[in-house]
Write a structure and sequence with these properties.
By secondary structure, this protein is an alpha+beta fold. The chain is built from 5 helices and 6 strands. The protein has one domain. A 6-stranded mixed beta sheet has the order 1-3-4-5-6-2, with helices on one face. It is globular, with a radius of gyration of 18 Å.
């Protein structure tokens, strides 16, 4: 087979559902959306790139984590609230939790995203829920 034939075979692969659904594009834009939210409202939020050591003292969901966003609140430095997501099937579930020594502990589920091409509004709702949770000290 020629080199040209090989290139054609590689370029004609069907996109994965993660690409077609918009999941990968949504996840790759998380840092940008968090920065926009932070800039608009002035709260100290940051996206942590590495996965945590555990979620609720378990390691089985770490590979399914979509993102982890921490709110550093100078008024409560001992309790760092977080927003994180876990992919379950083709749904991205959002959770409020707290982050401590590399581990995430779930406080409550916020819901899920099924339509990733229009998920920014839900993300902003989840970010507001993170701010509210850290102010209410849930």
């Amino acid at each position: 087979m020629s080199v040209t034939g090989t290139k054609q075979m590689v370029s004609k692969r069907d996109p994965l559902w993660e690409e077609k659904s918009g999941l990968l594009a949504f996840l790759s834009g998380i840092e940008r959306e968090v920065e926009r939210f932070r800039h608009s409202l002035g709260f100290n939020l940051r996206v942590l790139p590495p996965a945590p050591e555990g979620i609720d003292n378990r390691k089985d969901h770490i590979r399914d984590m979509g993102f982890l966003i921490i709110r550093d609140n100078p008024l409560m430095p001992e309790r760092r609230y977080c927003l994180f997501s876990i992919l379950k099937g083709k749904l991205l579930h959002g959770y409020i939790g707290y982050y401590d020594n590399g581990n995430v502990y779930t406080l409550r589920e916020l819901g899920y995203i099924a339509e990733f091409k229009r998920a920014e509004l839900t993300l902003w709702d989840w970010l507001r829920a993170l701010l509210k949770a850290s102010c209410d000290k849930i």
